[in-house]
Write a structure and sequence with these properties.
Elements (H helix, E strand, L loop, with lengths): L10 H7 L5 H17 L5 H10 L4 H6 L19 H20 L8 H10 L4 E5 L2 E5 L7 H4 L4 H30 L5 E4 L1 H8 L3 H13 L9 E9 L2 E4 L11 E6 L23
Antiparallel strand pairs: 1-2, 3-6, 4-5, 4-6
Helix pairs in contact: 1-8, 8-10, 9-10
């Protein structure tokens, strides 16, 4: 898969690493350091965390357990979200990552602070001292995991697929928000790939893939709905519409079943560094 960056920066590239490193804690470290980069804030990690706390924000400690908090290899430690499959996947990722780090002469991170230092060693951030002051910055371009870690072909393929799904899920979430917030939960929408791309400010191909994910795996963002069908008008009547085969400017219809919302508890996590208040 080709390297890509989203319109806001490096989330596409960063997401590949969150299929390898401890995911949730790595993501929140990324947001902390991205904030320092954007505001050109200097200081050690404690100072960067305290900077947010002074304004009443405790999202970093709440989401990660704090800089001295232990590492957990998963999105959540909440038992209601844990399954045997998720536990097995987390164990496999840990074994693979720790093994690769060992071959590089690096140790497994034990705390969130250790993880930040490891991210610096692997090129996900820059840690330097300038004029006696510590500085943490996000680089302009990140390496792919396979460019830094010794990954076997299967692991590299799985990481590649995970990075793809991570980005597509975010676009599906933006579509869900469009239908619920901007379009006020219509029963039907007649639109085109081009129009949807304009409305959410994405490339048409990104929207096409996001729409596939949204249609095949209906998602709920805040108060979103279940997609019932995607159809196109033909001389023979309405037929199923495959987003991957639609022309950019070809009209199609999306139908929703809002009544199904009461039965659903799924939620899309928007990967938006400007809204770090919800760590779930």
């Amino acid at each position: 898969m080709a390297r890509r960056k989203d319109p806001n920066g490096n989330e596409w590239m960063a997401s590949g690493w969150f299929q390898v490193l401890p995911m949730t804690q790595g993501q929140w470290l990324w947001l902390l350091l991205r904030g320092a980069t954007g505001s050109e804030a200097d200081g050690d990690l404690d100072a960067l965390v305290a900077r947010g706390q002074r304004s009443g924000e405790r999202w970093f400690d709440n989401a990660t357990g704090g800089l001295e908090g232990p590492i957990f290899w998963g999105f959540s430690t909440d038992e209601q979200w844990r399954t045997s499959e998720i536990d097995a996947s987390d164990r496999q990722r840990r074994e693979r990552c720790v093994g690769a780090l060992g071959r590089l002469g690096l140790r497994e991170p034990r705390t969130v602070r250790d993880l930040a230092l490891l991210m610096g060693r692997l090129g996900l951030c820059r840690h330097e001292v300038v004029g006696g002051t510590e500085r943490w910055r996000i680089p302009q371009m990140l390496p792919l995991p396979s460019e830094v870690l010794p990954m076997d072909p299967e692991w590299e393929r799985e990481s590649d697929e995970g990075r793809w799904q991570y980005q597509i899920a975010a676009i599906a979430g933006e579509l869900a928000e469009l239908f619920t917030e901007d379009l006020n939960k219509p029963d039907e929408v007649t639109t085109t790939i081009t129009e949807l791309a304009r409305l959410i400010e994405r490339d048409t191909e990104d929207v096409r893939h996001g729409l596939v994910d949204f249609a095949v795996n209906p998602l709920v963002f805040l108060s979103s709905a279940t997609i019932v069908s995607l159809t196109v008008d033909t001389p023979e009547g309405l037929v199923h519409a495959d987003p991957e085969r639609l022309d950019d400017d070809e009209s199609f219809r999306i139908s929703f079943d809002w009544a199904a919302l009461a039965e659903r508890r799924l939620r899309v996590h928007r990967l938006d560094p400007e809204h770090p208040s919800d760590p779930d």
